[in-house]
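Regression check, nickel (II) ion case 214:
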Amino acid sequence: MVEKINQLKQYVSEQLSTDTTGHDYTHIQRVADLAKTISKKTEQSDLLIVLSASYLHDVIDDKLVDDTYGKQKEVQSKLKELDYTSEQIDEVMDIITHMSYSANLKHHYELTINGQIVQDADRLDAIGAIGVARAMYFGGHFGDTIYDPAQMPRNDMDKSQYREHTTVINHFYEKLFKLPDLMNTSVAKQMADRRSQYMHDFVREFKDEWQGIH
Ligand code: ADP
Ligand code: NI
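Current build output:
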């Protein structure tokens, strides 16, 4: 298992080495570490699947690559080359193509327990202090406004509406504050509640300062 994972790490770090949207290799490493922690505390999880999907989860993301279908084929060949069984390849592909927030806006995909763990880990890295930093960094990359009180957060978006950004502060209401209730595992839910508390404090303080309250 160690050899397979090391090969995947190498592959993924080459793929994401130029990312400046908050999906760089350090995000991937944090997700893999969180997923490992959750996996150890969750019965019936398979660490090879959990780690493989964690490392690969952003390589095929349509906001980062243009030819997602081509990338999926490339990832499948990579796994085959590393002697993953076809069942293992199918599960990893199923997880990484269905776990994203945007894929689940209008339809909820049932992931395997391994997929639920990776999804929780990815979502944990979107919230808390790191979540605040990543959201601001992402907004800066796309030239988004930080805050505009005249623009209200949106509800019930489909994927293309979700991809049209409003403001970074709206992103907290449109996604980040919703994540704790969407956690699959109880381990992640506990961590998410703590991180979420911190984010709510941040946004409250931000708005107070904006209004000159203190
Ligand atoms: P997924 O890949 O699960 O669909 P997203 O594409 O929404 O998730 O985003 C991954 C991370 O990118 C988010 O957790 C957040 O940090 C950042 N992000 C996405 N959209 C925005 C946005 N409109 N404003 C600020 N940050 C964003
Ligand atoms: Ni991710």
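Comparison notes: The first helix runs from residue 2 to 15. The two ends are 54 Å apart (CA to CA). No diff flagged against the previous build.
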